[in-house]
Write a structure and sequence with these properties.
The protein has about 375 residues and is α/β, with parallel strands linked by helices. It has 13 helices and 19 strands.
Length: about 375
């Protein structure tokens, strides 16, 4: 008899895992607390590691059509003078892909539409689980219903309830930075159509990428205390003042964004856990290893999780699969969490910016390429 897997959460991690299970014939059911799917957020970058997995799931073409190809990634000063400027020729020749910028909601819908409706239950808020007779798991939901399953996958994000039951002492860390995001209704000059950019100023930064015709995803980051809120209707003017010293294009992008669609969130991550599983329950994606967004790898690492976990379970549908999964993924994921945290701190240095910029401008190309190989490599098959 096939083992059953209950996936908690229908975000990118949960849906990609569900689709991977579907492709491999693994028995699963997805449970999502929201009454309808409504992905919060704006844009997302899908790097070559994520695209390799999506290709293996036969949805790459749809993802490519939903977004915009990024063939050049530039880190620059606030006036657009470059610090690092990397074309994607190397990644295309090595992995077959560059980066795709798209809207999170589009990606979520593509994944959702590939999964049989009977396999996803909405309005099911996870409350707790217990192991019965050292075998099955009894999972309880907010509507007082329960289900029985063999294994539980926690894909319920950085504020995971599954994680809080598994590891109640896990800690979310605040980076000291807050982030505004939005989608501007604006047409960029041709030279920026396939270019992702991040501009670093005096302890503030601004990133942009075109995601479709007339649509530009942007984010703005500044230092602030935790849990601060903007006054209603004040965000646009606040950002225009904050970034007034930046290239005029930034003003145009902020101005072209509907005020009501701007999102503000503190930048947080999860202090690395010693392990992501206990017996018959395992965490994936942000639930197990949330990272700050400074490397554009949060979604990509959730997608990698789906690939490796499903491949291991296909070969070994037992508790041992979670240990093998953890062994396979922990080193890379923890490295990304650490590097992303350090990059976020460095980008907002109060002192030493000139030295930092000089170092960035002189990083050897071979070093950059080696790091890209480490980041984007997907190993096949999984042992």
């Amino acid at each position: 008899m096939k083992k059953k897997f209950a996936v908690i959460g229908a975000g990118i991690a949960g849906l990609t895992t569900a689709l991977a299970f579907e492709r491999k014939g693994i028995d699963y059911q997805v449970f999502e607390k929201a009454p309808e799917l409504n992905e919060v957020g704006a844009g997302i970058w899908l790097a070559p590691n994520a695209l390799q997995v999506l290709n293996s799931l036969n949805i790459l073409k749809q993802v490519q059509e939903s977004g915009n190809t990024i063939d050049r990634i530039t880190l620059c000063k606030n006036d657009l003078s470059p610090l690092t400027d990397i074309d994607q020729d190397f990644t295309i020749s090595t992995f077959g892909f560059s980066t795709i910028a798209t809207h999170r909601a589009r990606l979520q819908k593509i994944l959702f539409d590939q999964i049989p409706r009977r396999k996803i239950q909405l309005n099911k808020e996870f409350i707790a689980y217990e192991i019965v007779n050292n075998e099955k798991l009894n999972v309880r939901f907010g509507d007082n219903t329960t289900i029985e399953t063999d294994f539980l996958i926690g894909a319920d994000g950085i504020n995971s309830k599954v994680r809080m039951q598994l590891f109640p002492n896990s800690a979310i860390r605040y980076s000291g930075q807050t982030c505004w995001r939005g989608i501007a209704n604006i047409k960029l000059d041709q030279e920026y159509h396939h270019r992702g950019m991040e501009l670093w100023g005096n302890q503030i930064r601004f990133g942009i990428s075109r995601i479709s015709e007339g649509k530009v995803y942007w984010f703005a980051v500044a230092l602030d205390k935790r849990n601060q809120k903007d006054h209603v209707g004040s965000t646009k003017q606040k950002l225009l003042r904050m970034f007034c010293s930046f290239h005029p294009m930034i003003k145009d992008i902020i101005t072209a964004t509907p005020q009501e669609s701007m999102i503000r969130n503190d930048i947080i991550d999860l202090k690395p856990l010693k392990k992501w599983y206990k017996k018959k329950a395992c965490l994936i994606g942000d639930a197990g290893h949330a990272t700050t967004p400074n490397m554009g790898q949060g979604g990509a690492q959730a997608i990698e999780d789906a690939f490796y976990l499903s491949s291991i379970i296909e070969q070994q549908p037992s508790e041992a699969a979670f240990e093998l999964f953890h062994q396979k993924r922990r080193k890379k994921v923890n490295s990304i969490v650490k590097q992303s945290w350090a990059t976020g701190k460095m980008s907002h240095w109060k002192y030493g910016r000139s030295l930092r910029n000089l170092i960035l401008k002189n990083i050897p190309k071979k070093f950059t390429e080696r790091k890209m190989v480490e980041l984007y490599r997907i190993e096949k098959p999984v042992s």
